[in-house]
């Protein structure tokens, strides 16, 4: 059989990006602009709204799982950000405080879902911010809706994703439950048990870094900052200006709803 060039290309890209070609990426889902109906799936532990803590803006790294907030271990980035903040306060230095804020831990929320009309694509994981999280909890605690994830009596949710055209403004997510409850799976959707069994353990989708690895990422970041400062004769001590525009956009997207 001839080699599958498309697959080879994907493997090469994944290797260069330091990601793996396993199933992890298949779960990733982002809303499209406009309306889409989703169904949040129940998890075995009874909590389908998972909370994780990340550090962004550490060079070109994607969000780094914070060892401290997620796993109760030491975290060099938390320590560094706190120190930066204290220095900023003591010296009344707005720039230092700004840089500290960029490194503070941020929360993201994750739920397993299926997308209506795309059920055959299987379980997806939706990542959202605090506003959407609180809205969802509000619906669950509202007796008019209750457990929106129940396979028999739950409710689909219409997600409107609005991408504003103006620079500096962020995409906005609006959630509205359907007026009537519905079953999770009919014949068109397929085998409900199989679907529910295929829900991934969401924590396992992230690349968990040890305390030492996080320290090394921070060290790399700080030393690259120092050398780029020398080149550009920047004087700002802990500038994070060398983060690319794309990273900044992504961070903004990840940190805001
Ligand atoms: Zn941390």
Give a structural overview.
Strands 1, 2, 3, 4, 5, 6, 7 and 8 form an eight-stranded mixed beta sheet that branches. The longest helix is centred in the last third of the chain and has 22 residues, at 211-232. With 257 residues, the protein is α+β, with helices and mostly antiparallel strands. It has eight helices and eight strands. Helix 3 runs antiparallel to helix 4 (94-103). Mean pLDDT is 86; it is low at 233-257. Zinc ion binds next to helix 2 and helix 3. Residues 55, 66, 68-69, 75, 77-78, 105 line the site of zinc ion.
Q: Mind describing the biggest β-sheet?
A: 8 strands, mixed
Computed CA radius of gyration, to the nearest angstrom = 21 Å
Number of helices: 8
Overall number of strands: 8
Q: Structural class of the secondary structure composition? A: alpha+beta
Low-confidence residue ranges: 233-257
What portion of residues belong to β-strands? 15-25%
Which range best describes the helical content: under 10%, 10-25%, 25-40%, 40-55%, 55-70% or over 70%? 25-40%
| Shape annotation | globular
Compressed to H and E, one letter per element, the order equals HEEEEHHHEEHEEHHH
Mean pLDDT: 86
**N- to C-terminal distance:** 47 Å
User: Which ligands, by name, code or SMILES, are bound?
Assistant: zinc ion
């Amino acid at each position: 059989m001839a080699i599958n060039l498309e697959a080879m290309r994907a493997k090469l890209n994944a290797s260069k990006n330091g990601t793996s070609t396993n199933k992890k990426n298949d779960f990733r889902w982002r809303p499209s602009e406009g309306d889409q109906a989703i169904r949040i799936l129940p998890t075995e532990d009874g909590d389908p709204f998972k909370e994780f803590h990340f550090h962004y803006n550490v060079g070109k790294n994607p969000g780094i799982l914070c060892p401290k907030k997620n796993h109760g271990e030491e975290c060099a980035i938390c320590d560094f950000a706190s120190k930066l903040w204290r220095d900023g306060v003591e010296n009344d230095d707005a720039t230092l405080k700004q840089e500290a804020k960029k490194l503070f831990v941020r929360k993201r929320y994750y739920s397993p879902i299926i997308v209506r009309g795309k059920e055959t694509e299987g379980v997806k994981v939706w990542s959202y911010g605090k506003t959407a999280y609180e809205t969802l909890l509000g619906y669950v605690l509202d007796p008019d809706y209750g457990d929106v994830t129940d396979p028999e009596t739950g409710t689909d949710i219409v997600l409107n994703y609005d991408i504003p055209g103006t620079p500096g403004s962020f995409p906005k997510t609006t959630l509205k439950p359907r007026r009537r409850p519905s079953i999770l799976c009919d014949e068109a959707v397929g085998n409900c048990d199989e679907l529910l069994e295929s829900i991934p353990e969401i924590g396992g989708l992230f690349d968990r870094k040890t305390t030492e690895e996080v320290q090394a990422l921070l060290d790399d970041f700080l030393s690259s900052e120092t050398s780029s400062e020398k080149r550009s004769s920047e004087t700002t001590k802990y500038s994070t200006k060398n983060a690319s525009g794309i990273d900044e956009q992504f961070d903004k997207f990840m940190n805001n709803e």
